[in-house]
């Protein structure tokens, strides 16, 4: 199937940027009118995922514990399409899909609310990732997955009952930026390629969509 025939459906939500629609449309994808007609379901950025979805209590007062209406809606969509449709998560959407695949989150991290360098573990190339998130994916390594991209700068990260100082030069437990879960066809991109259309990072992310969709 040609990439130009593939359709995407953007779930929207608070914090969703129409730039993702423009980015995908500019790459030759058509916009579907509903999720049933789409080949790719886009989960967008926005409010933090409720911590109860990954079995933790919030460590900061502004982090929600109970699932929001949006969490519940997107949970229903994911349960309906998992494994049958390609799901693409951007920022919060990546973190949500990571949780849906059995992962958890670092509830608060530093140096990710701005642009930072990320390393593609497959090619060895680095990209300047556009980022606005304060949380980070903790993958589920108990199911089939591929760790695609990691941050290459030192950070501090915190979750319920734990704080870690991470230096990528000395610690292999790196900050996860991009994950692929083939079983449920979930591509989790924690940065914001739609903020920088035409950039190396945006083109790289679009390349990942095409690559993993075909797998």
Describe this structure in words.
- This protein has 215 residues and is α/β, with parallel strands linked by helices.
- It has one domain: Rossmann fold (3-Layer(aba) Sandwich).
- It is 21% helix and 27% strand.
- The protein has helices at residues 19-26, 69-81, 92-100, 200-214, and strands spanning 7-10, 30-31, 40-43, 86-90, 104-106, 108-109, 116-120, 126-129, 136-138, 146-151, 155-159, 162-166, 176-181, 186-189.
- It has a 9-stranded mixed sheet with strand order 2-1-3-4-14-13-10-7-8, with helices on both faces. A 3-stranded antiparallel sheet has the order 6-11-12, with no helix packed on it. A two-stranded antiparallel ribbon has the order 5-9.
- The model is unreliable at 166-172 (pLDDT under 50).
**CATH homology superfamily:** Class I glutamine amidotransferase (GATase) domain
Helical fraction: 10-25%
What is the end-to-end distance?
12 Å
Number of DSSP strand runs: 14
Main β-sheet: number of strands, strand sense, barrel status? 9 strands, mixed
Stretches where pLDDT falls below 50 for ≥5 residues? 166-172
The succession of helices and strands, N to C, reads EHEEHEHEEEEEEEEEEH
Number of domains: 1
Write down the overall geometry: globular
CATH architecture: 3-Layer(aba) Sandwich
Oligomer type: single chain
Q: Number of helix segments?
A: 4
Beta content comes to 25-35%
Query: Mean pLDDT, as a whole number?
Result: 86
Using the coordinates shown, work out and report the CATH topology: Rossmann fold
| Biggest sheet: strand arrangement | 2-1-3-4-14-13-10-7-8
Q: Briefly, what CATH class?
A: Alpha Beta
Q: Structural class of the helix and strand makeup?
A: alpha/beta
Radius of gyration: 16 Å
């Amino acid at each position: 199937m040609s990439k130009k025939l593939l359709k995407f459906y953007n779930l929207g939500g608070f914090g969703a940027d129409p730039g993702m629609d423009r980015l995908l449309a500019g790459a030759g994808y058509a916009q579907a009118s509903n999720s049933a007609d789409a080949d790719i379901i886009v989960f967008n950025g926005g409010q933090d995922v409720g911590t109860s979805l990954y079995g933790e209590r919030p460590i900061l007062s502004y982090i929600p514990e109970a699932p929001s209406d949006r969490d519940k809606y997107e949970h229903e969509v994911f349960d309906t399409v998992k494994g049958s449709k390609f799901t693409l998560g951007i920022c919060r959407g990546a973190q949500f899909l990571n949780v849906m695949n059995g992962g958890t989150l670092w509830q608060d991290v530093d140096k990710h609310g701005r642009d930072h360098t990320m390393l593609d573990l497959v090619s060895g190339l680095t990209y300047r990732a556009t980022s606005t998130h304060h949380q980070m994916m903790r993958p589920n390594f108990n199911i089939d997955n591929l760790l695609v991209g990691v941050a290459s700068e030192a950070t501090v990260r915190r979750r319920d009952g734990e704080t870690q100082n991470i230096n990528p030069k000395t610690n292999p437990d790196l900050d996860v930026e991009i994950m692929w879960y083939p079983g449920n066809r979930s591509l989790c991109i924690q940065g914001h390629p739609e903020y920088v259309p035409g950039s190396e990072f945006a083109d790289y992310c679009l390349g990942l969509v095409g690559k993993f969709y075909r797998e």
